Every structure is written in structure tokens, then in C-alpha cells.
Automatic annotation (TrEMBL):
Keywords: Flavoprotein, FMN, Oxidoreductase, Peroxisome. Its cofactor is FMN. It is an enzyme of class 1 (oxidoreductase). Its main location: other. Belongs to the FMN-dependent alpha-hydroxy acid dehydrogenase family. This is (S)-2-hydroxy-acid oxidase.
Amino acid sequence: MAGEPVNVNEFEELARQVLPKISYDFFSGGAEDQHTLKQNIEAFRRITIRPRILVDVSKIDMSTIILGHKTSAPIIVAPTSSHQLAHPEGEVATARGAAACNVIMGVAFTSTCTMEEVASSCKAVRFIQTFAFKREITANMVQRAERNGFRAIILTADTPRLGRKEADIKNKMIAPPFKNFEGLISTVAVSDKGSNVEAYAAETLDPSFCWKDIAWLKSITKLPILIKGVLTGEDATKAIEAGVAGIIVSNHGARQLDYTPATISALEEVVHAVQVKVPVLFDGGIRRGTDIFKALALGAKAVLIGRPVIYGLAAKGETGVKQVIEMLKNELEQTMALAGCRTVDDITRSHVNTETERMECRM
Ligand SMILES: Cc1cc2nc3c(=O)[nH]c(=O)nc-3n(C[C@H](O)[C@H](O)[C@H](O)COP(=O)(O)O)c2cc1C
Ligand SMILES: CCCCC(=O)C(=O)O
């Protein structure tokens, strides 16, 4: 590619050029047939925007408030693991990039820098992400998150076991050391059968964790809990009953169960079930400012960005993370101006058409 990247897809190409194949495959891959992986992106293309003209758009304000935290735009860095496989400075560089853009940083417990290192590296508002780990691991995570000024817990609930990413199995992907586990698990899992990331997950996860156990998690922390991995109205209702502070519509970047719907196709069902009782956040396949606009129009309060941030990190470290977030912010600002929306609250359901509406027009 000649010249500087002009959109986040070009950052993926840069990342592919600099990363060893095994790492690029790990970051970019999805589960099994990777059907949902493609759909997460394709489904956005099937939604059209209904712009309004002759609105005063001389000033655009993208700022919003998420769980009480003011951010410059409805963008959050998604919690993703293993950033040192992308860049030696790992999650510290990512968090600094997020801080420079004044957006919230999601930190995975399976990070390669410790949560303490990330916490002391910058002033970004940080949320810690956990899985349904065995209880002693979760209790340790909660204590450390509170001590280190994390502002919320993201409980990723779509991972009672790890999805099958076949590229990782073929490549015999070796997980980097997940430093947050030091002293918590006795052995570093190894497997000669394929990806050892799977063996790692099997050793740490508690697949019996279910809805009633959220009460236990709530009993050991004062931090608000966001539940990540909701794809149906039924589960959204259960999440509200369990008393979560927010819901993240996500299929884990299509890395868990293949043939789940593209997340943008599942968003409205969840939004309807939630009835504005808690904020609904969204991730999966966001590559353009127009994608963010569409997710907001369908009811999301903010979006999480996974792979593009990792690609920025791989290509240019902290600067790359910053550039990726800035690009998405600039594109969202442009979209809002051209669609006649001055603030994020001006973006409504009537600013998009989905396939459902287009079918109705034809009938
Ligand atoms: C390499 C990689 C690692 C991930 N690790 C985690 C993780 O540790 N915890 C988690 O909840 N989600 C994880 N995710 C999922 C992201 O949080 C997010 O849901 C997803 O990346 C969004 O889709 P996108 O990559 O298309 O933006 C990971 C995703 C990728 C690509
Ligand atoms: C045990 C690491 C889990 C990372 C993860 O969630 C993913 O790769 O999707």
C-alpha cells in the first residue's frame, strides 16, 4: 500500500505486513467456517442511511456519557487479549492511545501487561473485562480492579469454553504469558494438540457459572457490571432481572459460536427488550464512522472497537491506536454532518433503513 493509511481497513493491511502469520491469524480469525465473521461486516452494508438536509451542522458534538463518564465520542476500546503479540508495549500503549483520544479503555484480564501496569500508565477511564472464571480468580480480579481505579466490570458471558478458531489450531498458536494470572494458576497450560490458548481457557474458566451467580459477583464488588455477549431479547430480560448496569450486544467478534447473527442484526431485538432501563452497548464489525452511526440509530449508546485498534497498535504502537480512533471519530463527525445530526442524541431510528423496511416497501 502506497502512502499513509486513509481508513481503518488500510491499517489491517499494514498489520498483516508487519505481523508474523501466526499472530495475524490469531487477531483476524473467527470461529469455524467464519460465516459470522463475514456477516458482522456484510450486514452493515445492507443498512442505508436516511439523511436530513438543511440542518445547521456548523458545530457537531459527538460527546456522550457512559455509566457517568463523559467521553469525546461514543467509542470504547473493546477488551481484547494479547496485545504484546501486536506490539512490545502491549496494552500500555493501547491505553495511552485511548487516553489521548479521551475514550474509555476496555482491558482484558487476559492482557499481556498487568492491570496494575495499565492503570499506572495513563489517565484513561478503564473498564476491566473478565470471563466466568473460577471464583478465586474472579475474586482476585475484583479486588485488584477496585484498588487500581477501574470503573466497571465487563463480564463476558459468551465463553463457558473457548470457540474453535481453526487457524490457531493449525498454527499451534502459543498463548503469550497472561501476567494477571501469575500466582493464581499453578501451571501454564500446554497442549501438543493445537492451540494452547484453548488449554489455558479450560484451566481457568468455570463452565457451570450461570445467571444466579451474577448475584455472587455483585456481592463482592461495588463496581457496576456490564454483561457482554447478549444476542437475544430473552437474555437481555434476564440480564436486567439480574441487575446489571448495562448490556453489550456482542458475538465476541465472531470468535465463539459461528452462525450467530451479525451483531448489527441482533441489536434492535435487544434494545426493544431493554426498554431503556440500562444502556445498550454494541460491538462487532465496526470499520467506518457510518457503521457507528447505524449502530447508534438502532439504539446503541456506544460501540466497542476490537480488531481495528489491534491493527493500529501492530502497525504503529500508541500512535497507530490513536490514529485508528481519530479516523473513526472523524468519519462519525462527517457522517453526522452529512446526515443532519448535531449531537449523538439527534441520531434516531428514522435515520436508517434496514432490510425489514425495504421489504415492506416492496410489498
Ligand atoms: C484478538 C481478539 C481477542 C479478543 N479477546 C477478548 C477477550 O479477552 N475478552 C473479551 O471479552 N472479548 C475478546 N475479544 C472480543 C472483543 O472484545 C470484541 O467483542 C470484538 O473484537 C468486536 O469485534 P471487532 O473485532 O469486529 O470490532 C477479542 C477479539 C479479538 C479480535
Ligand atoms: C484465553 C484467552 C481468550 C481470548 C479471547 O477471548 C479471544 O481470543 O477471543
